[in-house]
Give the backbone structure.
Amino acid sequence: MSEGYLTGIFIQIGINVILALSLYLPFSTGQISLGHAGFMAIGGYFSSILTVNFGFPLLVAMVLAGVLSCFFGILVGYPALRLKGIYLAIATMGFGIIVQIFFQNFNYTGGPMGFQGMKGTNFILTYVTAIVFSYLIWRLMNSRIGRAFEAVNEDEIAAAAMGINITRIKILAFSLGAGLAGVAGALDAHYVYYIDSHNYSFLRSVEMLLFLIMGGSQVVWGPILGAVILTSLPEVLRFMAGYRMIFYGCLMMFLMIFRPQGILDRRLLLRLKNYLVPWKVSHS
Amino acid sequence: MQLMIKDISKSFGGLSAVSQVDIEVSSGEVHALIGPNGAGKTTLFNIISGVIKPDQGKISFDGQEIQDMKPHTITQLGIARTFQNIRIFKNLTVIENVMIGEYCRTKTGVLGSMFHTLDKMREEKNILSKALEILGFVGISSETFLLASQLPYGLQKRLELARALATEPKLILLDEPAAGMNQQETLYMIELIDKIKKLGKTILFIEHDMRLVMDISDRITVLNFGKKIAGGKPLDIQNNPCVIEAYLGKKENYLQC
């Protein structure tokens, strides 16, 4: 295994951590998005145009990509407010498909020929971004706003009775998540050098969801764990060749039957924390 | 008059749930709302707290009309409530449930939370200490870090009360605070309600336990089939023939019911 190959895996893990976190944010308020690849696409393409066509530095392009995706998150978030559960999932899936088809036909960004020339994503940039985002989101979830997210997820009516503006909180979570997906899209585009609409398919959205569902959807560490495991697992299991996918699938089923909340949930985290820091006041 | 409910009506399809109800609650009063099951009591609570919009009528709180406001705004104005079927946040810890109650009285936003500013740290400390204080007030301090779902029923009811208190309300709506409780737990609840009254809060509560109602209420309103059939002091209500008829059935025909 060459060094470049290992670095590549690590960069993918880093990007997937950000993607998993981007899905975790709306999920923590009870909003399922099956169209997050759409926000990733917006971020990916927009940042690519900025760097390749206009010579923007990658960091600036990443920030702007995040802002644009965030804005689209608000646009999608508002009508999505009245939808719950499976209906929201299907509506967001629709959004993801719309974005994909749009870029397939949008000639300015190359249409079916795709867009290329982006470079600049390296190990340091990816991991600094991933770590910074992880930290900020961890801080957010352990604060007044984070508690409001969890309250909305648990019981919207009770949360409203606590003085929480449900609409604002849900839009906030959804748009922040969209923004994060946009930044991840920018990093991803500048890593793979060439993007086209196939990069942002429904399967991509599902993949992100799997990181979240498997790693744990209740606490910040969950999506991080899920992204790390599910990105490295295919590589670790490379020796199993064709049977790798079967193992993958079985793992998914096993998890959903016996532990649907994912590997890391609130209870386990509390127990781990109590084990490691018994003298500290412990609240997740 | 702190809370004025005027001519409130609400129908669901063809069914009239609440019909032209007038109630006045003064500041600091303990006011009971009683009536047979299905009389419209919880519906009225839902209308007051903004979960349901009335078909007609007005509700004013401290001089402000609130019948068209959203639930979170009404809570911010100072009305808190508990629910008939407990709606605590089951997957969160006891202390977190109470801390969420303080949401409308605190202000750290997204940026403050993410960047862990000094203001945020100070506010978080206050939130935590206030929550611990409230848990002590309702008597569930020993369960602080348990998940809410791990509490027994009686303590879950107290937790919901603690959470409502955390919103710093002027008026608390309690929906059947003693439901499902034994003698001892009911006595504790009476003491708790009395403690809350001593804090200066106004209490409007729905109850079926008549001993509790007669024991602590300053005034009582009786609903039946969505209509108000009586209102007044406990002694008057006890002897009111319309009320007796509502609960026990007709003995003689009273034209005024």
